[in-house]
Amino acid sequence: MSQIFLFTGENRFQLLQEKKRWIAGFVEKHGEENLQRLDARSVEFRSLMDEVSSAPFLAEKRLIVLEGIPKLEKEQAEILVSEIHPQVLLLIVEPKPDKRFTSVKTLLKHVETKSFAPLPREQILSWMQQSAQEHGVSFTPKADMHLLDVVGEDQEILSQEIAKLAMYIPAGIIEKTHIDDLVVSSTEQAGWHLMDLLASYQTEAALQFARKILDRGESPQALWNMMLWMMSSYASIYAAVEQGQTNPATISSTTGVNFTTVRTMIPLARSMKKEQLVALVEQFTRADIDMKTGGIRSTAEAPQEVLALIDQCLLSFAVSR
Tell me: the pLDDT tens digits for 102-129? Predict the structure, then answer.
């Protein structure tokens, strides 16, 4: 059986939960004194070898939790694998291993890997219901979907928001109004959701969501900046697809765009013609120049022109597919 394990993947929440479960189970069985935590960014190779080659203290096993993969020479990686004590378990936690390094490639040949991928939306909703029950509350119909739309699919953020809602709602039932009152959607998450709606042909819903962002107090200028970011992100996804990339995780890593949004946008990027993308980018660019040079009025007292511009650009994105 393998002595070296790797936890990796985009689903940071589930990865951390599994790491906590491993550590808690190990400590209960073998004691805190046989647990060692190390940081790959600061640990020296000699110190790492001292730890992995040391026998457990009055127990059957010793667990080393290594955060990250250290920068090693190929020979050092081979020594690490060959000289680990037979009663030592090495758990490496690295969401995104850089396989360009020879040492990483060497280690990956000898590790037992457990990957944590983002959950499908249906499974996230099921998990949200279960998480709410653990906090002694429940969602009204569609309230869970509303929370998902507001904060995105990051389970770590969702877990925090469910715990916060459970503390403040009076009757143990989470309603959409509670979410609107207590949960704040970040600009980045709102941008991802807007992209998701456009990519899934929900143009009317995208227009309504843009209005909802404004109703929550966001300024038209801030919404416009979000849309510029959205257009830039989509152009990056389009370029990756045009270059032959098909793996959403790879594209997410190279572009910095949310994994789920990348997965949603790929079919759109495949179907859109290059001249359509160029026309969209030119439209957004001209509009931004007009915003910054006074061609379009944008004041708190007279936001009508910029609001019309926002609707026009969202509709152009929709009809260009």
Answer: 888 888 889 999 999 888 889 999 999 9
